[in-house]
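Notes from the pairing session

We agreed to fold both candidates in a single pass and log them together. This is the raw record for the first candidate, unedited. Please don't reformat it; downstream parsing expects exactly this layout.

Candidate A
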Amino acid sequence: VRAQLGDAFISRRLGEFQVAGKTHSVVIHELFCRCAAENGERAWIKVFEEGLDEFRNGEFANAAEAMKRTREMRGGADGPAEFYLRRITKFSSEGTPAGWNGVIELSEK
């Protein structure tokens, strides 16, 4: 769908997820607005996606900083950034999952 939208809409990549019971992961995007209606979203989306890349690469401290900046740039709240900050906290206390490849495995459908 993202490829079909082309450059007409602004979206952000939320990450790669594998749902319980599935063998393949999928990349999820969040749709925001038509490009013509853009109101500064590109700046914080860039920071979020940089953090997402750091997360995927296992650079959790850098990922956390980017997610915190995203949250600040969005006025103090951003659900997906909060999701990743919780994951990073969990990995800090429990360790990174064995065979980490950056894909978020969801235990429930």
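Candidate B (folded immediately after A)
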Amino acid sequence: MNKFAVIVAAGAGSRMGTAQPKQFMHLLGKPVIWYTLQTFLKTIQDLEIILVLPEAHLKTGHSIIDTTIDPTRIRIVTGGNSRFHSVKQGLSLIKQPSIVFVHDGVRCLVSPLLIDRCLQAAELNGTAIPAIEAVDTIRLGTRDSNKQVERGKVFIIQTPQTFQSGLLIHAYQNEYSEYFTDDASVVEASGIKIHLIDGEPTNIKITRPIDITIAQKILEERGLE
């Protein structure tokens, strides 16, 4: 079966507090998104990548792609007004039955092992969503109050969220909803069961300045420069 990764990197990264989108910030001399692309290219030899970028940064994207191990396996599309619309743009290029990874471009520490486990689980179950159990005390806030939630029932969801293409593409025909904060929520709204697999604590999303420091330390420990 064909394999695609829709790498979503079309956001402005406002929470980082910098003019430069976080996917283009440097870690050990290379852009954040470069590490993400390299890991997927190295892990699955017949994988094709669809990289979704902001229109204003397409030229930068092409220059980064040219430094990867196999630029011929990467195509770029322009992102939409929301993550939902950006993913939909990427999916429009997939025309044959496939396994599709949808991954946050700024989760640059994703491991080959997690990618492989997502692939195997999606082939078996149709969906594979990496998640880690919450370790902190969790409280649910309402308009007037808040209450503690049983921690063991709370999961932190990660990417790559992985699907058989028929399920995913069909789900993305739905009208956009603010409830659709990730791909699992889109697919679940179509009545499809979501299968969780073990994620990784190091598979962090680069969102705030402290995340750059953490990611750099992890990359140094892995020897990835």
